[in-house]
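Dear support,

I submitted the protein below through the web form. The confirmation email said the job was done, but the results page showed an empty box. After a refresh the structure appeared. I'm attaching both so you can tell me whether what I see now is the final result or a partial one.
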Amino acid sequence: MALTTATLTIDHSLLPQKYDKLGVRFERRSVTTLKAGAPPKDMVLLRPAGTLLAGDAAIGPEPRWNHILCGISIKTADGTEAHGQGQFIITGQRFIGMIDNGTAGGTSPLSAAKTGKIFCFSFGRDDVSPPEVKKHRLQPSDFTFVGQQGQPVRFRVLIFAGMAYVANDKIGYWHDKDMFRVLSDEGRQGLLKAT
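What the results page shows now:
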């Protein structure tokens, strides 16, 4: 599955919405934060929807995934660039991302909360080399995914400051060990199993 990107504008009044080209859904959820006693936070969440993909891109259901809140930077050989804070999803078959607060190329700023404008991407797990890892003392490591030779467009995706995850409408702490686990062959097989 080659890298696919899109700059989209979400209409909050029409959520949930889907975007077939990327095989994703967008949902508004009330999410419990890490701060004790704080009210739930209203968020637009990205969700995998592989069953929307057709033809050569078809992958079928994605029964399990990990949903990370993190920094994202993406650069492609054709000049596409986007940077900022967002969500990164790891399924058994692909990686999906959404920058919901940042910049993309020469367009107006991305802001899911204010304008609904976001940048999304998706690529297959088999289309990238194992990530380059840069460790930091007392901070989450950086994980850089580079598209393998033979891809229609070469690309580089940096995932940084991944300190939290979303599951069951709750935010929890995410650690390097969690990232290494889901990127392992064993972790991948676990994500492919039906619930």
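Response: this is the final, complete result; the empty box was a page-load delay. The helical segments are 176-183, 185-192.
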